[in-house]
Amino acid sequence: MTTSWQLWRDRRGQLSTLRLATLALLLFPLAKAALQANEIAHGARPLNELIHRAGFWALVFLGVTLAVTPFRRVFRYGNLIDIRRMLGVGTFCYIATHLTLFFADQSYDPGKFFHEISHRVYLIVGAAAWLGLATLAATSTDGMVRRLGGIRWRRLHQIIYAIALLALIHYFQQTKADVTVPTFAASLFVWLIAYRLLAWWQETSELSTLSLLALAIVVSILTFIGEAVGIAIAFHVSPLVVLNTIFDFDAGIRPGWQVFAAGLAVVAVDAVMARWRGRAVRTRAVAAE
Ligand code: HEM
Questions:
Q1: How many angstroms is it from 5 CA to the middle of ligand 1?
Q2: Is residue 193 within 8 Å of 161, Cβ to Cβ?
Q3: pLDDT tens digit string along 183-209?
């Protein structure tokens, strides 16, 4: 018999390495912050530093949660679905911490807290994403799935894409200088959503290696264009001038290249897994003869 708090056990009550690894991943930012506690405490704004860390990791885990669907297909590992809820609830825990720390930063004064949120656009956008995530967390239990019914539950959970968009806008808006990391994060989310759109368009659940390669190229090109347009608007220059510098690696590797490398890594994994599975099927067929 297993109880629901035993997160490291699967539905049959057996110890699950996958769940243990997920738990370790979810606790990693906490452990990192604990190890750096001294450095954080002596920094200029310790509370602000923690707000940033919690927000950053919430966004990372939101991305990892969205990656479960494509990755279970690319890795040919259907069991990954078992950790999706854990990742989603973990994301909410970080975002709840993000907001609690912000409340602490407003001296636990509800008046100040609501005044601050309602007077800053990036906080209104963050609050909308926050409420969306809270709704998804509240409806993530088995009881709520039963109560809502599969179709309504799935429809409601589609708001995850709007939440991701709002969270990315919030991230961009609060970034004061270099937007390289937010641009890379946005490009990864574009890949995750484009994967689903392509699979839906091709009426398949598993994209071919060639389709994954096309996806890597298209998302990378969109990232270069998006970044160039963003810089062009911010600095009043032509986007073509920015695009002309994509092969200039002196100033660092651009998000377009970073997402291309990530996309190629997925292509490589898919190609290896496709071969491996093909070989396993052939071996089984020979054994059955
Ligand atoms: C009411 C809800 C929210 C409030 C009040 C809030 C507040 C804040 C504040 C004050 C900052 C730091 C800004 C600065 O130092 O200038 C921040 C940064 C950030 N927030 Fe939020 N936020 C909210 C919701 C969210 C949500 C839902 C997400 C994502 C799922 C998110 C992700 C982030 C990220 C990624 C950063 C930047 C972290 C970094 O610098 O690496 N926030 N937020």
A1: 28
A2: yes
A3: 999 999 999 999 999 999 998 878 999
Distance of alpha carbon 217 from alpha carbon 46, whole angstroms: 41
Report how far ligand 1's centroid is from the alpha carbon of 168 (Å): 10
Question: Which atom, in ligand 1's list, is nearest to the CA of 56?
Answer: 35
pTM flag (> 0.90): yes
Asked whether the CA dihedral 162, 164, 167, 168 is positive or negative, the reply is: negative
Encoding tokens for residue 204? 């398949």
Reported as a single tens digit per residue, the pLDDT across 213-239 is 999 999 999 999 999 999 999 889 999
Protein residue whose Cα sits closest to atom 32 of ligand 1: 55
For ligand 1, atom 27, which residue shows the shortest CA distance? 130
**Cα(174) to centroid of ligand 1, in Å?**
7
pLDDT tens for 113-152 read 999 999 999 999 999 999 999 999 999 998 999 999 989 9
CA of 212 to the centre of ligand 1 (A): 32
